[in-house]
Amino acid sequence: MIGPRHAEHIFKRQDCDLFAIIDHSAKGPSVAQQFGTRLFTNLGQLFEYCDSNCIDYPTAAVIATPNHTHVPLGLELASRGIHLLMEKPLAPSPADCKTLMTYCESKNVKLLVGHHRRFNPYIIATKENLHKLGHLVAVQGTWTLCKPPSYFMEKPWRSSLELGGGTLLINLIHDLDLLQYLLGPIEKVYAELLTKQRTDLEGKDVDLLVDEGAALTLKFENGCCGTFICSDNVTSPFSFEAGTGENPTVPFNDSIAGFYRIFGSHGTLSVPDLKLYHQGTPFDSSNNSMMGNAQDSRSWLKPIICDQLKMSHEQEDTSCQTENLMLSPSPSPNIKDSSPIHRLANQNNEKPKPFDLQLDHFINLLNGTETEVKCSGDDALRALLCIDAVLNSIKTGLPQYVEKVDSIDIDVELLSRYS
Questions:
Q1: What does the pLDDT look like over 259-268, one tens digit per residue?
Q2: Contact 320, 328 (CB under 8 A)
Q3: How many Å apart are CA 410 and CA 419, to the nearest integer?
Q4: Which CATH number describes the domain made up of 120-332?
Q5: Residues 6+ apart with CB under 8 A from 346
Q6: pTM (two decimals)
Q7: Of the given ranges (112-116, 145-149, 178-182, 348-352), which has the lowest mean pLDDT?
């Protein structure tokens, strides 16, 4: 589902050539034909083609394949110096993640992980306005919708425990990455599985089917606490896709409010409606205090003010009218700053597409315009370690501390095959 979208964004760029599609599925020929590019059914065919025709290998590759194939494909490409944009999760296990990260670093291969929602204009606006909330105290989150049987029938790995299926690994990992992007590392989790309802997939026993979601409580390293509901088998509009219109296969609902609600000492921010609730008490982030003598101005006896925040593309910005911004990629959104988001000749006030912004950043990493990876292997590993803690909590029935990135060892045997 994601591969053709990546191909389309690459195909439309004037500064990129879509060298080939590698796909052994029945969809491969039609996708390659759509974009007028070569088709190979495996990496070996691609390398043989380049070698026999004295053609340089491609500069970079986008890997949008089933989760369990990420690491072997990534290692094979990195062994030839090909840079990687790898769809999440980076690998099914933390050790495999660390192994791929280590190998890419040894080969000077750039690795960007496809947690593309970090580039979504709703999330960029949220990140840029968090300081208005004061001390971050709590968060509520929801990702709930209903996947049809065809979703699982099309790709059997999606319903396989062994191959990385299930909504926790496929979907929840996105939200855990975003929550950590916004609020900092998660320290501890507790999770309860939701009741499984699917019983008709290949006649499997319900205990052998992948999860359908979970209810979580979260504790962040900065002291913030939260709850999260994840389900792929309920009737609900409260999901990232429905609320932002990011995924064209999920109908956009512009009335959705509060799939994230972030509570602070001086305000609450609702996402994706971007409503900021406060009582007119500015917060001085430079010394972590209120501005002026306003201690008594925060009270349940006073009315709450609601401000409608805007995304960057909705704000007047004359710099976007220059020729250079319309023809070449600009620096992408950064965790550590509030750089304006890039839009390509966005004169109609349209929302920029996260995949475009992510690809901007990847191209900038390749040509040296940017050097700091916006979603690194460490970021991806941190999200995966949160999922591991969720699964361990479900297994034990107890809260679990999230392992630290530095505590994960590489798979020496796997690495030795490519050294």
A1: 999 999 999 9
A2: no
A3: 13
A4: 3.30.360.10
A5: 313, 320, 352
A6: 0.83
A7: 348-352
